[in-house]
Write a structure and sequence with these properties.
The structure is a single chain. This protein has one domain (2-121). Helices cover 49% and strands 9% of the residues. A three-stranded parallel beta sheet has the order 2-1-3, with helices on both faces. It is globular and about 35 Å long. α3 (53-60) packs antiparallel against α4 (64-74) and α5 packs across α6. By secondary structure, it is mainly alpha-helical. The chain has six helices and three strands, in the order αβαβαααβα. α2 links the parallel β1 and β2 (42-45). The longest helix has 16 residues, at 78-93.
């Protein structure tokens, strides 16, 4: 995955998971940050851009509409807005990639975050998916 990010010119990996742990080897925040930095990719975890637990539960059930509604409500808060402002500034300064748990960007809140950033910066969204 990190080689694909380097190949795409990504300089910064922005982790938008509320809970940056994983049973998948290499995807827990500490190991992921170390591995990314070894590849020359900076890592930043923005927990406040993660989906709240009820939204994650809806996503696990395949209920994207409920997840989207819950996430939209979450993003109205001051802390998520501050995290969005930080993500926007980071993405405007260098090529960045948003990371979350869900593989398919059509069912993940990271697409919503990417669209919010793109609206503010005019940047184009490119979905990177592993082979």
């Amino acid at each position: 995955m990190l080689a694909a990010l380097r190949g795409a010119g990504v300089d910064l990996l922005v982790d938008v998971r509320a809970v940056p742990r994983s049973r998948k080897p290499g995807f827990s925040s500490r190991l992921l940050a170390a591995s990314a930095e070894a590849q020359g990719i900076a890592y930043r975890h923005l927990q406040r851009l993660g989906t709240p637990k009820p939204g994650r539960d809806a996503a696990r059930k395949g209920d994207a509409a409920t997840m989207t509604r819950i996430f939209a409500g979450h993003m109205e808060g001051d802390e998520p807005q501050a995290a969005l402002a930080e993500a926007t500034a980071l993405a405007a300064a260098r090529p960045a990639c948003l990371l979350c748990f869900e593989r398919d960007p059509h069912f993940c809140h990271r697409t919503i975050v990417a669209e919010m950033i793109a609206k503010r910066t005019g940047q184009r969204i490119v979905h990177l998916t592993p082979p």
